Amino acid sequence: MKMKYPAITINKTKFKENLEIIHRKTTEANISVCAVTKGFCAMPELVKLYADIGFSEYGDSRLDNLLSINVPNSRKWMLRLPMISQAEETVRFSDISLNSEIETIRALGAEALKAGKHHKIVLAIEKGDLREGVMSEDAVVMAGEILTIDGIELLGIATNFNCFGGIIPDVDKLNELVRIAEEIEQIYGIRLGIISGGNSGSAYMIENGELPSRINNLRIGELILCGRETSYQRNLWELHTDIFTMQAEIVECKTKPSLPYGNVGLDAFGKTPLHVDKGLQERAIIAVGKQDVSMDYISPRDKELKILGGSSDHFIIDVTHSCRNYKVGDIVEFDLSYGGILNLFTSKYINKVIL
Ligand SMILES: *Cc1c(COP(=O)(O)O)cnc(C)c1O
Questions:
Q1: What pLDDT sits at residue 340?
Q2: Residue 50 above 90 pLDDT?
Q3: Which end of the chain is more exposed for a tag (fewer CB within 10 A), N or C?
Q4: Å from CA of 219 to ligand 1 middle
Q5: Would the pLDDT of 1 be above 80?
Q6: How far apart are alpha carbons 72 and 65 in whole angstroms?
Q7: Annotated catalytic residue within 2, 38, 120, 256
Q8: Which atom of ligand 1 is nearest to 39's Cα?
């Protein structure tokens, strides 16, 4: 079959192996995993791989993605704080949502009652990264208020790291989270089913045996897709780091000067370009560009290649030093970081191919 470019390819064998390893390691550590699907827009063929391995909790930050997830006997988590304007859809498309605003939770409760069901809330607690969550000192009172809302069940509490502030989870911070949970349990005489200790950045603590025993859930996306925990960027458990590849086709390959000539103005994105004269270069132009993926997230598999720059529909690559003789029609392959996978899956111009 004729291949259509640009493409992102997914190595199914390696993907399954990563899923198996994460499932085994977290099960051994008594951690339930909320499998986070936003990195690949919850592509159904890939969600199926998770289901086959036995994952039963799925999380995404977009209702559109959650809507497309259809795994029997599973629960769906809305990970981004729900928009109050979408309370009805949130209750319809998810079983559990992370929340920090009492008005939103009231709206969810009202919609749940209308729909004749209960909606589960995981209260987001701020622990230093400073994205979503109530401040620790407000958590107990907030939990009490949640418990009074009809249609709502307080399932547990959660915290998040490694996102806005780049804060790394540690034993002290997770022990504080457990303390908050136990205070809520004591004061209101309940048992919280979920204490969720973060995302892929907390996985290193499983490996070190440092996760407090009452932390019983992590929400994991990137570690499965990229094979690295995100606190120290370490490869864990020999997970594959090369499941995803970007492939793009060369549409021009010529020897040209390295220094643009004429009166210098702005580049395609309104910036003043800075170029150094390196003499003549062998330059390839590929048919993929900044509209599809940020240059920061891609790196050529052929280590002798260098990305010189790009515009919305092209990247320009210095192929001078490669031992391969690139020509028009050749395919260039790139490794991808999490952001690159996310960009490419979001673009309708990219062919997504499971190998
Ligand atoms: C995206 C997201 C995650 C998953 O993060 P990874 O670093 O991909 O593991 C977990 N929790 C929340 C709230 C998220 O938004």
A1: 98
A2: yes
A3: N
A4: 6
A5: no
A6: 16
A7: 38
A8: 8
Three-state DSSP at 231 gives coil
User: Alpha-carbon distance 277 to 306, whole Å?
Assistant: 15
Task: Give yes or no for a contact between 274 and 241, defined as CB atoms under 8 angstroms apart.
Answer: no
| Alpha carbon of 309 to ligand 1 centroid (Å) | 30
Q: What angle do CA 117, 119, 122 make, to 5 degrees?
A: 165
Asked about 38 being catalytic, the answer comes back as yes
Contact assessment for residue 301 and residue 326, using Cβ atoms and an 8 Å cutoff: no
Tokens representing 11 are: 């190595």
Question: What span, in angstroms and rounded, lies between the C-alpha atoms of 318 and 155?
Answer: 54
Cα–Cα distance measured from residue 126 to residue 33, given in angstroms and rounded to the nearest whole number: 20
295, 307 contact by CB (below 8 A): yes
**In testing the pocket of ligand 1, which one of 130, 163, 229, 232 has its CB within 8 Å of the most ligand atoms?**
163
Cβ neighbours for 247, distance < 8 A, ≥ 6 positions apart: 3, 5, 6, 7, 8, 9, 331, 332, 333, 334
Do 227 and 236 touch, CB atoms closer than 8 A? yes
- The per-residue pLDDT for range 247-299, each reduced to its tens digit, is 999 999 999 999 999 998 998 888 888 888 999 999 999 999 999 999 999 99
Side-chain half-sphere exposure of 238, counting CA atoms within 13 A: 1
Task: Please give the domain boundaries of the chain with CATH numbers for all domains.
Answer: 12-226 (3.20.20.10), 244-354 (2.40.37.10)
How far away, in angstroms, is 163 Cα from ligand 1 center? 8
What is the torsional sign of CA 17, 212, 136, 201? negative
Residue 17: what residue type?
E
- Nearest in space to 205 (alpha carbons), one of 27, 26, 345: 26
Q: How far is CA 55 from the centre of its chain?
A: 17
β-strands 75-78, 331-336 pairing: unpaired
> CA nearest 158: which of 120, 117, 189?
120
* Residue 74 identity: S
How deeply is 105 buried, as exposed, middle or buried, from its count of CB atoms within 10 A (0-12, 13-18, 19+)?
buried
Tens digit of each residue's pLDDT (9 = 90 or more) over 152-201:
999 999 999 999 999 999 999 999 999 999 999 999 999 999 999 999 99
